[in-house]
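User: Fold both of these, please.

Assistant: Here is the first one.
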Amino acid sequence: MKQKLVIWWVMLCALLAHLTAYATTAAIAPSIQVVGLFKNTAIIRHNNHETIMRVGVQTSNGLRLVEADSDHAIFEFQGRRLSHTLSDSPVLSLAGSSSPDQVRITASNGSYTMSGAINGQSEDFILDTGATYVTMSAAQADQLGIDYLHQGRRTQMHTANGTADAYLVTVNSVKVGAIEVNQVQAAVLPAFRSDKILLGVSFLNNVAMSQEGQVMLLQKK
């Protein structure tokens, strides 16, 4: 009889431990609803409770708002950066792998856009597997302090609009979310017109890419 009680008690403890672990995981990996986006502010709803988040503020479950405007927001959760736009479904899932070297990017109008940095300076990127290099305009290079006229190698590149003059340079670092790659080749095209820098193959060769529905996963190799 005592042996059966001991076995029953061990099984009960194991069950309670499992339920506790499940509850803890659910608490730190919730799905939230983004119900409002403003300059440096996002309004989220979780368990029928709305919370106003400011940039830099972190909630009790570890969600932090990195940046926001009326069109999009970037959240950080367990080392991952999650991009959300008003064109996305309002639900933002925080579940999934929490690898510090993984970035999850949600598609917006068929494109994968994200915020990051070049040489430590903030920039907006658009993922482009058809671009050989990280590609920017002359104005963007000037803003980043890249002296492409003297330090770059002049060449010509084939673009959608034909052949264009370009300067090949090496930037010290390109960072997207928690993924940072050093000594990345980049192309400066004076005729390039875009408010976002193309995140091309010279960066993407250093990451593994996979897709889950409308989410692109980048994992540093």
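And the second sequence with its predicted structure:
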Amino acid sequence: MSLTRVYFPGLNGLRFFAALAVIFTHVELLKKFLGFGSHWLDLEKISYDTPIEAIVRREISWITPFISNSGPLGVVFFFVLSGFLITYLLFVEKEKTGVIAVKDFYIRRILRIWPLYFLVFVLGFMVLPNFEWFEVKVQTRAMNAYYWENFFLYLFFLPNLAFSMFIAVPNIGQLWSIGVEEQFYLIWPWLMKKSKNFIRTIVVFIVLLVAFKLAFLIFSSNVQGYWVGVAKKFFAMSKLECMALGGLGAYVLYYKKENILKWVYKPITLIWSVVSIFICILIVPKFLQNGAHLYYSLCSLVIILNVATNPACFIKLENRVFDHLGKISFGIYMYHMMIAAFVLHFSKDVLHFGADLKAPQILFVYSATILLTILVSSLSYRYFELPFIQRKKKVTHIISGENAKKGA
């Protein structure tokens, strides 16, 4: 019996742009840590309630909120996309084979994520700390103070808990989102396998999760203490609801909920989803920032459904360049921090760039970071990740992605 093939065009392009958004934010963060002028925005440091007020009062540049929020938006997009794809493929598997093979699901995820995760883990804890050009002083001091605590939390896929307890580990702090995804994968296939009414299950899951976070936020607003702060940060980072919303989109598509899809596919809905994100970045007040990801998730889902499943969509991202860049986007996400640190150290120590970077110097920093990241990620994919990915064939029940497109 031939295996069912599932391919969504344009998703690789979306993956790349999400990864690129993360790079922009993290370059600015590292510029701040390494003594350069930066557009990194710390909401707690501005004296006004919304970014637009701070811009009008000339406290920050107009571009600062967009650059600072591009990274979190990119991560939210990755979460939604992950939930969408995983859920859709499990729907197909359940229909075609009669069951969701949870063990095989875990093996596929392990082969795709663990090799690169542990390579970057080794680099971050054992290799890069020996080289000055990868040092990020504030983060390096914190890692040295809590080295083994961080080490074991990262080792056991709890980097989001480590990030909640301590400052991010230099060069690999972005691994926190991998921890969130792994925790989602632990429960999601079981929910889908055991649920007799998936739509009810997913709605209850989202509502209970959001209600719990809101209740804890209200409870902790007047409670002080280290562990309360850790819990607040941990719950804020663990955006399982974003992936669940992606799963909701997969349900709508798989079961052809035409009334909803008709609304989603309207050009004005897509345009509003894109434009309103930029509006929200400017006008959402500080106290609502931790909840804005729910709206951004819905906008991301609209974009995903249009680009990947709407033939009339005016956004076309299906071409060989984006296919390659999306294929290596996991590597781009995993390697970009260490490469950005290297480029900034090189700019300071060899090219002698001053703290106030000029336009050509900024262009060099970004261009060098992006191009080197693409190069390293391409080599990593071809020579390190691909051999593990190819081993997934033995436990694959639905052919998806590049193999489905090629008809492999």
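The mean pLDDT is 93.
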